[in-house]
Amino acid sequence: DAKTTQPTSMDCAEGRAANLPCNHSTISGNEYVYWYRQIHSQGPQYIIHGLKNNETNEMASLIITEDRKSSTLILPHATLRDTAVYYCIVRFSNTGNQFYFGTGTSLTVIP
Amino acid sequence: EAGVAQSPRYKIIEKRQSVAFWCNPISGHATLYWYQQILGQGPKLLIQFQNNGVVDDSQLPKDRFSAERLKGVDSTLKIQPAKLEDSAVYLCASSLGTGTYEQYFGPGTRLTVT
Lengths: 111, 114
Prior knowledge:
A: mainly beta; five-stranded mixed sheet; B: mainly beta; 11 strands
């Protein structure tokens, strides 16, 4: 599975959009981009995933560049509860390959 | 629906002792995972079960770690004997199948080896 690169930490003001970048320059054509987050002292939680097109759900939006070498997770109106470590992961969707979580981005939402 | 249950939540043991963790996945989930998360790192997969069969245990230190999933439901992870470097949070997760995108994680067991 392709490796990802994420900033170690980011801050965001409460109520503003949080934009979390991820580089995955070696991604192959049939690898998906997944985002999970881990709130302190909890297990990781699925947020969203996508292949080529931008995706949106009730939690977040995922923007994937046309060349698929990078993506951005957008939390449209960050709240204090969004403070967590965010993991960007790439893997083949339907083969059962494991998730490689990396070290993620620690997002702190500031009041 | 009930989430993934794990016990105990915390465990402190001395090195060379043995320890066991228990996981009860979400009802109907065929796939069960055990992860190890060392402080400051992301979770690392130790073993993956599909029903009661092992799908992937390539990163399980088999000289000291063992896991089983009898009857394809609950699972136990055992460490014997424990080393200082085994201090970590052990996370259990489950999913409907091996190819599904969403894994549901339990709260984890924090192990401290002294």
